[in-house]
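Notes from hallway chat w/ T.B., transcribed later so I don't forget. T.B. wanted the structure written out for a chain they're using in a teaching module, and asked if we could keep both sequence and structure tokens in one place. Agreed to drop them here.
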Amino acid sequence: TVVPFTALIGFGLWNQWRSDQADAIQRALNEARLLAAQVDDHIGNLDNLMIGLSRAVSWDPADTIANDTLFRKIKAELPTFAANIMLFSPDGTNIGTSSDSGRFNASDRTYFLKALAGQRQSIGEAIHARAGDRWVITVAHPVQDETGRVRAVLAVGTWLEHFQHAFSTARLPPGSVVLVINQTGIVLADSVNGPKWVGRNLSTVDHVPRHIAAKEISEIVRWDDNVNRITGSATASLAPWLVSVGLPTDIAFVPVLRRLGWGALFTFVTLLMSSAIAWTVSGRIVSP
């Protein structure tokens, strides 16, 4: 009587373990999707800003001072995540900026070349700005005339620390990590190591290329700090950035392990009680 009962309990506990493990893996993926949507919101806000500005700026180099005045006025009204607003002529010459730190030629910048080629939205690489010792990434948008010809390139820089503050792990289990990398594996944000990890190349880490290629994936992997985490990764739509959320297995599976422990204890107590009853009954039968 006891053996089938024990087998049923064990089978139920095993199914519960598999179900809870699948739920934890799905939770990591859902969290990654949610944070990837936040990235899209931020990039979308920058894109909307540039679309509006593209109708107000002048691509005539003679209007550089007027562009400067406009950009500085708008920059003062923007949230603190905006680093700089710039306008470049087709040869890369700066013809408008909100910064007081001088002008530079953008003819060799990735975001400029992509926008000049007509790409509606282009995102540059993470750059360590000397001013303020902060990391910045630039989003660019082509300024076109009525015929569709690109007459200038508008660019807005955003401080990467904005993502650092936005990706809070308060609602996640202790020991959780949020990581944002670009399409080549360069770190853009890390909830644990902070700015000191921005710019680091993780393309050689075993699971990183696999997650970049998969776009969306969730599995248990060992991170570079030698901690196994249930890792969900999702790619943003407006930026080729991968957001990964790592939940520690030893914490994520605590409710499962607790249920398994109680189930095993209940089974053991049942076996002891059954054995005691069987021993007593058999003694009464055999003794006469």
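Follow-up for T.B.: The chain has a mean pLDDT of 85. Might be a good example for the class.
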